[in-house]
# Entry
Amino acid sequence: MIAETVCSAVAAAGLGIAAVTAYRKRFLSATRIAAYSLVPLGLVMTGVVEWLADTALSPAAWAGFGVLGVSWVLFASTRAVERRRGGGTRKERRQAGSAQREAVAPAASAPTLGSGSRPAAKPAAAPQEDFSDIEAILKKHGI
# Structure
């Protein structure tokens, strides 16, 4: 009962402020203030305020929120455990990652300029070529 009265008073005060603002020829602001002030009145008229007040004072509702919190904690903990177990140890994950990298052809990332225009490089020399390209770009920009 008190919550409905407070919301109705806030709506009335907001509409009064909107009227004063409109009197000052600031119609856009007055319309916006009126729209905001009608929200609490609409919530009172639909019964949302009464429902919220009943929920806030209900022990069963708070127990329900507690059950939802426990449920969330259980979901989060199972995800954390699943992540830890998913890849095994760090060493196993590194080995799996290196196995995936080795599965790709070493020259697959090199651009094709045509047949025979570039000699095939050894896999160990590929990073040196990448660094020389980067150095050339940096020198070109004066870095």
Summary: Helices lie at 2-23, 27-46, 48-56, 59-86, 90-103, 126-140.
